[in-house]
Design brief:
Blueprint: H1 2-23, H2 29-53, H3 57-60, H4 63-87, H5 92-103, H6 107-119, H7 123-149, H8 156-168, H9 171-185, H10 191-216, H11 225-249, H12 255-265, H13 273-278, H14 283-308
Helix pairs in contact: 1-6, 1-10, 1-14, 2-9, 2-10, 4-5, 4-7, 4-11, 5-7, 5-11, 6-7, 6-12, 7-8, 7-12, 10-14, 11-12, 11-14
Length: about 300
């Protein structure tokens, strides 16, 4: 319990710093939004390049693990998208970003430290594999659907062309391609470039958490309680269950890696989730969902650890 608190406490502290900074007037809300632009266009792409390029490609490619984790994540993604789009009646972009929140985990900053508590250093392999699914499947799929939602009322061909143009210029997609190319080729970046990327990657988490705190100022949860509740329940409950189901469909994976996968699926969504939502007018919902999920995860992750460790 104390180990888990030591992992989540810094997250709350950084969110609190952003909240107090805007509430007190030290930082204006539009200034925090500018910081969000930095995270989305520079710091997060640097984090992705740093994470993917430094892992050998064979470590990033365990077909059975990748397929099982992808099945579980896509099941939750699809279910949340359909619920938001057709049962709740949200826009295509809104449904896509909600689906991202339900199936994209904070693997690096919460999932990995928690998994290490249970299976040790093998958690690093799970982290690399999970980041491949999150960065190559879940995030691009969510962005493609969300971007297409901005082109409503146009022909399918026009929507596909416009969405494709936006995606190929998207810094996240570009970073994924660069990171995978470096991993596959074995090429290493020049020292100064690698250091600069590492510095920006390090800035992504604290800056994103600061922005989340800023977005919470003036937020009224009542008007978004349904959306937040659905996203949080799907992320913390449905996602680990669906991932466990995926590994039941595809047995044969190292049992410790299966445990890691379920743990990764059971932690809150990406810390930059509200940054993704900002472009589509959903930063408030995303920030609230992340805050609630992080609070609730203190209890749900503790229970999940008890289940997977047999206690």
């Amino acid at each position: 319990m104390l180990d888990l608190f030591s992992i989540t406490a810094p997250i709350f502290l950084l969110i609190g710093v952003g909240f107090v900074a805007v509430l007190s007037g030290i930082v204006a809300k539009h200034q925090a939004q500018a910081l969000a632009v930095f995270v989305l266009n520079f710091a997060l792409p640097a984090l992705i390049i740093d994470a993917l390029s430094t892992k050998p490609f064979d470590q990033l490619f365990d077909a059975r693990y990748l397929a099982a984790y992808a099945i579980g994540s896509l099941l939750v993604f699809g279910a949340m998208f359909l619920v938001m789009r057709y049962a709740v009646g949200r826009s295509l972009s809104h449904a896509a970003i909600a689906a991202l929140g339900s199936s994209g985990s904070n693997s690096g900053f919460i999932g990995y430290p928690v998994a290490v508590l249970v299976i040790g250093e093998l958690a690093a392999v799970g982290l690399a594999l999970n980041m491949m699914i999150e960065n190559m499947v879940i995030i691009p799929l969510a962005l493609a659907l969300a971007e297409s939602g901005l082109q409503s009322g146009q022909s399918l061909a026009t929507i596909l062309r416009a969405t494709g143009r936006r995606l190929v210029r998207n810094p996240i997609i570009i970073a994924i391609v660069i990171g995978m190319a470096l991993s596959l080729s074995g090429v290493t970046l020049p020292g100064p470039v690698d250091t600069a990327i590492g510095m920006m990657a390090t800035a992504s988490a604290p800056a994103a958490l600061f922005v989340i705190g800023a977005a919470l100022v003036g937020l009224r949860l009542g008007s978004m309680a349904l959306d937040v509740g659905l996203i949080v329940a799907a992320k913390l409950i449905a996602h680990p269950l669906a991932v466990a189901f995926g590994f039941m469909l595809l047995p044969g994976v190292d049992p410790d890696l299966v445990v890691a996968a379920v743990i990764f699926a059971g932690v809150p969504m990406l810390s930059v989730y509200p940054i993704f939502g900002q472009r589509f007018g959903m930063e408030g919902v995303c920030a609230a969902a992340l805050m609630v999920a992080t609070l609730a995860a203190f209890f749900t992750t503790t229970m999940l650890l008890g289940i997977v460790s047999g206690n």
